[in-house]
Design brief:
The structure is a homodimer. By secondary structure, chain A is of the alpha+beta class. Chain A folds into three domains: 97 residues, OB fold (Dihydrolipoamide Acetyltransferase, E2P), CATH 2.40.50.140; 299 residues, Bira Bifunctional Protein, Domain 2 (BirA Bifunctional Protein, domain 2); 31 residues, no CATH class. Helix content of chain A is 32%, strand content 23%. In chain A, strands 6-10-11-16-15-14-13-12 form an eight-stranded mixed β-sheet, sandwiched between helices. In chain A, strands 1-2-3-5-4 form a five-stranded mixed barrel. In chain A, strands 7-9-8 form a three-stranded antiparallel β-sheet, with no helix packed on it. In chain A, helix 4 crosses helix 6 and helix 6 packs antiparallel against helix 8. Chain A is globular and about 85 Å long. The two termini of chain A are 31 Å apart. At the A-B interface, strand 1, helix 4, strand 6, strand 7 and strand 8 of A face strand 1, helix 4, strand 6, strand 7 and strand 8 of B. Strand 8 of chain A pairs antiparallel with strand 8 of chain B, so a sheet runs across the interface. Chains A, B: InterPro entries: Aa-tRNA-synt_II, aa-tRNA-synth_II, aa-tRNA-synth_II/BPL/LPL, Asn-tRNA-ligase, Asp/Asn-tRNA-synth_IIb, NA-bd_OB-fold, NA-bd_OB_tRNA.
């Protein structure tokens, strides 16, 4: 059994081939467009209807699974170089055109989300998921080549001190009548892990422990947010990539993040040419149906090259605030959230203004106010900013958030006390500062945001196989 | 900053180097053994104590973080080819010998488990986790090279029909006073996902949906079992690899599984030579302390070559039962579970007898009784066996479990009905048989079992960074 990708790229003319896949279309009782998932392209299989009985031909419907055997010949028709002259044909599974939902016509994305087990049989989703797979391999390949170790952070966590968002509780207690302690509260001491546990929101803190021994590590695993956000940018379950490096300061961290994203995008530009060309065309068609003002102005591949072909602009938060404050949209009150003063948290509209209008290149903002950032970020000598950095991309805004970590035990303890974070919860995290502490840094990148960027898909639910969102855990 | 691995392998003599890491030992107030995690080997850094003040030298303790600068020269001492003549030395973080737990002496594995954030600073755990990382990359590399797509199965699942084991509930309901429905039960309609949800035990069913469009896919993600098993072979949270292939029958599935395991083991033999040599020696030392009867008889690398250098023996379940029934230990009543009749489930003792004594090579057992296997396995024409296969390895028993899947809608429906599995729960899984069904197969491999096999570690808690087991979700 040969896959269509290799038949199209390397099988010699006149060779006998055997190929299995699913019917995309069947034209003129003669031309089967067969797809096996190995490539976007279909293999044209030509049946001479005189050689096959009527009953067999009637079963060749969109979605049916077949194996065909025959001779590879030069195609007489347009649209393909080669085709198979079919000598044998076996039907494994039918797809009744009356009931099969994935017919060769345009389906709405909403409809396809309800058919998430079948939507992968469309060109769009197959292309997106092949690019997703290639991006994931590009990530592993990049880090491996650069001396990082892959680190599996725990998914179930007993700590709730990270503060990155609302968490899902994990339990085996009887949900109706949980055991209670003396004060009448749920007795989590009776639970599976002997304490209250949640799904992780980030593997960073544990990755720090490993970086402080192996030097350079990265996580790539699922993380969770129990936030009731029904938007096209949020998932309750998503995959995150979190590199963490000992002896890296914020500058080295920014260098790495920039190089990493550029290299991973280059990887898919190289390995997914055909799927990206299809998705580029798809986005172009979609954009045409939008009002002029809402169009992005850049094609998909153009946007990818925008990221790979120029250095990212590095700007301090303070500089960015000045730029925004004096910007036209701010003065003309076009921002939903006007920028008045230093200390404001930036919204997506501000990030997009900086990237798309002002600098017209990817932007790294750094040295944010301590107040709006997490407890573990390294305090600058000014006492009010921290060594945080966010990378902003066209179209999607923030794609990476990172920082140099606070390596000084006393400063970290003071910060935790201010924020009411219990030292007992994070005794082991403080140990990393007690014993052999050093400058270290890392960042996090939401994998689905990266897939959205690389595929041009507007809704994050369409770049993960089976999305989990409020009120939805089907499949 | 250069990493020690590249200094030892490629830096020219007399070059100036700058290297950061942690002190493993400091001998004679002169010789620092510095490790940065990039390799098992330490870099010897020689300080001339006349150039450094007493106070600085006193801070060079095991575990302290340093950066040294100096000249790379040929080493005069034994044990290393090169060393650094230190000209500058900067101490980033101290490690007080009175309180730092990881001193250069033998620690018990139990003690190190309690210090899971620091145990990675020992040679053994650093070697294990580097091999773990390499194995993971070997897995991705193998599947990518062979035309598979990486598929992220959902972690939170609304289905409890898979029946692979006890599950963890995922919820955001108030645990003390959950909302109730009219009949007084917990109203999961009010929960985050609008229904009761659990952590997945397997991504197989979802992977089947993707295989039936992309052809060949694999999962590599965390899976969960809420089983109260406090053994050296079980974790509540572990990583699983599950390939799934359309148009593969059981024979093709066995061919793939065998080739996959051999190639992944070859990958680490090639890329982790130094760490494996260390772990081989470690296992040898450990074995020496055991009574003769309990020793494995094979060294670590010998065991890896045992798997890569010979074809796996394929035996039907029925043949295996005959062999076991007539075996010496069975006749002499040495098995804890004697083998009397066809239909018995095989225990670890039987699996090890077949691999280690009878065949003396890895064994694939196939065609198991339907009664002892899962509902989705393809029924053979004999009506009593299914196209299941297990791969058995020396030392650890079952490492892979797989099957050809039941592709016939009516047979699958009948089986589900017999077992009381609600069709409504798995409507989408049945759809895969309704539309374009075909022969397909897959298998699952517990990643930590593979890491145990490749590293020779006796306890599964020592091959995952932060193990989750009953009563334990620390860190």
């Amino acid at each position: 059994m040969t896959r269509i990708r290799s038949i199209l790229s390397e099988a010699p003319l006149l060779s006998e081939v055997s190929v299995s896949g699913w019917v995309r279309t069947f034209r003129s009782n003669r031309f089967i467009a067969l797809n096996d998932g190995s490539t976007l392209e279909n293999l044209q299989c030509v049946v001479d209807f005189e050689n096959f009985d009527e009953a067999t031909l009637r079963r060749i419907n969109t979605g049916a699974a077949l194996t065909v055997r025959g001779t590879l010949v030069e195609s007489q028709g347009r649209g393909q170089k080669v085709e198979v002259q079919v000598s044998q044909l076996e039907i494994h599974g039918d797809a009744d055109p009356e009931s099969y939902p994935i017919q060769p016509k345009k389906h709405s994305m909403e409809f396809l989300r309800e058919q998430a087990h079948l939507r992968i049989r469309t060109n769009t989703f197959a292309a997106v998921m092949r690019v997703r797979s290639a991006l994931a391999f590009g990530v592993h390949e990049y880090f491996t080549r650069n001396g990082f170790y892959y680190f599996h952070a725990p998914i179930i966590t007993g700590s709730d001190a990270e503060g990155a968002g609302e968490m899902f509780r994990v339990s085996t207690l009887d949900p109706l009548t949980p055991p209670r302690d003396e004060s009448g509260n749920v007795d989590f001491g009776e639970d599976f892990f002997g304490k209250e546990t949640n799904l992780t929101v980030s593997g960073q803190l544990e990755a720090e422990a490993y970086a402080m021994a192996l030097g350079k590590v990265y996580t790539f695993g699922p993380t969770f947010r129990a936030e009731n956000s029904n938007t096209s940018r949020h998932l309750a379950e998503f995959w995150m990539i979190e590199p963490e490096m000992a002896f890296y300061d914020l500058d080295a961290n920014m260098d790495l993040a920039e190089d990493f994203i550029q290299e991973v995008i280059r990887y898919v530009l190289k390995h997914c040419e055909e799927d990206l060309a299809f998705l580029d065309k798809r986005l172009e068609d979609e954009e045409k149906r939008k009002p002029q003002a809402e169009r992005s102005g850049m094609g998909l591949i153009e946007k990818l090259r925008f990221v790979t072909d120029q250095p990212f602009k590095r700007v301090t938060y303070t500089e960015a605030i000045e730029i925004l404050r004096n910007s036209k949209p701010n003065k003309k009150k076009k921002f939903q959230y006007p920028i008045d003063a230093w200390g404001a948290d930036l919204q997506s509209e501000h990030e997009r203004y900086l990237v798309e209008k002002h600098f017209q290149c990817p932007v790294i903002l750094f040295n944010y106010p301590a107040e709006i950032k997490a407890f573990y970020m390294r305090l600058n000598d000014d006492g009010k900013t921290v060594r945080a950095m966010d990378i902003l991309f066209p179209g999607i805004g923030e794609i990476v958030g990172g920082s140099q970590r606070e390596e000084r035990l006393d400063v970290l303890q003071e910060k935790m006390q201010q924020l009411g974070i219990d030292e007992k919860e994070l005794w082991w995290y403080l140990d990393l500062r007690r014993f052999g502490t050093a400058v270290h840094s890392g960042f996090g990148l939401g994998f689905e945001r990266l897939v959205q960027f690389a595929t041009g898909m507007g809704n994050i639910r369409d770049v993960i196989p089976f999305p989990r969102t409020p009120q939805n855990a089907e499949f």
